[in-house]
Amino acid sequence: MVRVIITKGTNNKREEEVRGMSVSALESKRLDMVLKGDEDVEVVGTGTDAVAYALMLADVDVTSAYPIRPYGGVMQTVARLIADGYMKAEYIVAAHEHDQFEIVKHASAVGARTFVGSSGVGWLLAIEAIVATSTDRYPVVALIGNRALDDPGAYGVEHNDALMVRDVGWLLTWVDAAQEALDTTLIAYRVAEDPRIMLPVGISMDGAFLTHSEHAFKIPPKSKVQKFLPPYDLGNRKLHPSNVISVAPQVNEDWVTELRKQMDEAMKNARKVIEEAYRDFAKIFGRDYGNPFVEPYMVEDADVVMIGMGTVSKPIKEAVRRLRARGEKVGFLRIRWFRPFPTEDIIRYLSGVKVAAVVDRDYSFGSPFDGGAVFTEIRSALYEAEHRPLMMNFIGGLGGREITYNDAINMFNMALDAARKGKVEQRVIWYGVRE
């Protein structure tokens, strides 16, 4: 249940109107305001609640559901919104995760705006359908509640589930707060459904740390969403008896190369489309994220910059503030969009620093230098930089283990020591491993 709070800007009259109402009645009143009014409504809820409200505002036509934690909060909130009459959508309970993704792929083909989600091994069970969704160019939006892959059994966050599809045509983004989750869901539909793109988007959200924690966030009025997000239109690709087309034909060596090149062009186009979407979002909703692809934090004069994705940003930012107060020139760079990869931004923000330290909540066994996936991609991006920094990689927080403020301080101290010495003695560190 989402708890509704009264914002500071609320006038006394409206506060009197809602005082003493039950939580459910107050939520109903506020949802009516969202759907019929023109003001933001502030609530307290989880990251998955925030995504569910975005789906309501986006007029999603079809959602398929199969329970798996930590993603499952979305399907639960969506089910309640449909049952209470605030959302009109076909809610199809699938037999398992593979069916779940097949349902939305085919619904998207006939012109329905769709949503789906999963976590960990559930996401990978659907891999056949996930790959076909991108290669068939259907703009499905999915939430990936990041979770460790079995075995051994683990429900805690790791990023390898989402990263398994980094090379097959899915746009991938990571969020670190409920407000960003809601906003990014709306932006994802705008980007995915753009005729220049027509590729699916996976929105990654750290399991437990964001899927289950409560945040204050604002639900924008539907009137603003309608200005921002046009209706879904497949054009002449819509699968319909009156439009005779072929979907997923057997072409082998005759046309596969050309089709893959078209996907490559769409992914390249995504950079411009994402920039346009964020600019329009700022104008309509009044929330400006600045650079859409990365979030720089005190990096302008930094000697050492740490890089990461997702909720690891919270303790690292606190460490940056504390170390800055002690005179240390440190900063943080959070990657929002992993596909398309923000190559130019990586070069811009990191090419002048002494040490770039990447925190990977993932692993890539046998990779160059045995580093994590994000480390390897950043190292590759910096190959073209005129002034390349020394690089370090911290692999940590696996299986849901916390990366605390103290951990961030320790990582920064190791990177600062490397900056003073002018060399990295240990390139890849599995942080916090018990011997």
Describe it for me?
Helices cover 40% and strands 18% of the residues. The protein has 435 residues and is α/β, with parallel strands linked by helices. It has a seven-stranded mixed beta sheet with strand order 4-3-5-6-8-7-13, sandwiched between helices. The protein has a six-stranded mixed beta sheet with strand order 10-12-11-14-15-16, with helices on both faces. The protein has a three-stranded antiparallel beta sheet with strand order 1-2-9, covered by helices on one side. It is globular, with a radius of gyration of 22 Å.
Q: Could you give a quick summary of the protein structure above?
A:
It catalyses: a 2-oxocarboxylate + 2 oxidized [2Fe-2S]-[ferredoxin] + CoA = an acyl-CoA + 2 reduced [2Fe-2S]-[ferredoxin] + CO2 + H(+). Heterodimer composed of an alpha and a beta subunit. This protein has 435 residues and is of the alpha/beta class.
